[in-house]
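Mods, move this if it's the wrong board.
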Amino acid sequence: QVQLVESGGGLVQAGGSLRLSCAASGSIFSIRAMGWYRQAPGKQRELVAAITRGGNTDYADSVKGRFTISRDNAKNTVYLQMNSLKPEDTAVYYCNADILQDFAGYNYWGQGTQVTVSS
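Not the wrong board. C-alpha cells:
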C-alpha cells in the first residue's frame, strides 16, 4: 500500500507565501508524474501544477508566475512553493501521484491540506 502525506497548509495573509510538501511512502517501485490539485467550496477539483519524473512542469494559468512545483525523487516528495497568495487561492490542496508498483501503475491521492488566504 502507498500513502501520500501532505503538510504545510495554513492561514496566511494576501501577498504571503506557503510551501506545501507531499511525501509518498510504502510499496513504491517508481513515481512517474506528481501534482497538486485544489478544491474550493462549491467548485470542482482543479489541477494547480504537475511535474514529471524528469522535471517537466505544467501550471494552471491562474498560478503561473506565482507558484513553483518541484520534486525530490530520492525522497519521493513533491513540493509546491506558493508566493503572492490571493484570497481566491483558498482551497483544500491535494497531492496526486502516479506510482509504479509490481509492474503496474496506480494513481494515489493525499488526504488534503487546507490553505486559507485572508484579504
